[in-house]
Amino acid sequence: MSKMRVYIIDDEDMVREGLISYVPWYDYGMEVVGSASNGREAYEYLSCNDVELVISDIYMPHMDGLEMIEKLKEINRNPIVILISGHSDFDYAQRAIKSKMVYEYILKPINFEELDKIISQVKDKILERSSASFPALDEIEWKKLAKDEKEGKLPLQADILAAIGNANSETAEELLAKSITHMKKNRYSLVMASRYCIELIIGITEMVLEQRNSREVLVEDPITEISNKTSMDEIAEYTLGFIYKGIDVITRKENKDLSPVVNAALDYIRENYNKHDQSLNGLADRLNVSPNYLCLKFKEETGINYTKYLNSLRVKHAKELLKDVRLKVYMVSDMVGFEDTRYFSRIFRSYTGDTPTEYQKRESIRK
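Now predict its structure.
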């Protein structure tokens, strides 16, 4: 796994520099990617860039720590947060800990031995987040799925997606119903049904992303939602709702015109996703706008931030390339624009539920 990204916010230069310089970030597998002296400056950065851990003072000019956290939650940014404060304010602490993003609240002067324990715990939590993903199937289950698909007993997800793309809700609904009926009759596990439907939902999301430049259908985490279902009927109902959402977005007549700068950004990303160093700052320079302006406009008009859009596109192309078993993972990583193969593997898994190697293996089973 590549280094976990840390962002530090404090209006006291000494505290900020101390956290950057004296904490052995390398030993934790972390790196400080930026810092700010107030909440507003931090929010501008964090609204455009993904980080795993934020260490923030509470009382700051322009925007305090809790206000910044609430604003980040509004735009679906959820790094783990450690709050620090020079004031022993119990009510403030209680409000902080109630936020799901806040992991710990510590007082100044900072006890670095205490901070060491907290950061070690946070590291484990970040690793847990990255590994808690899709329902995992064993090889026997994959072979059963592949066999039933090849024999035409289980509808292919591609056929359901084709029906959705053609706005044929009746066919899509029939194929999903056939899939669930087959799974029930043949004693598929709930995990198998969950995996099948999660992959279908990811396909719908990719289709909407490609055709409408939007992730509008993805308003919640389908992995969590489906994993919480206790029956195949509940899974089917949720998935059917997603199918209708996808068709609605794809066929909607009114389509908000994108601004010239966002259109230009999308065109550039699609043509150059496979090149290294596709940073938001670099693209902003190319388009003669500020990085913050591009970040906010891109998210506002597409419903997804720049990094997630780029990674979605890269993972989609990587999935196609990995179907060729002659290609090694490091080769595919480079071909879709990643310099670090470990980072590519982590991103790929977060989008598909498999490592690239696992994905390539199971796709070969499905052939």
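Residues 242 and 318 are 25 Å apart (CA to CA).
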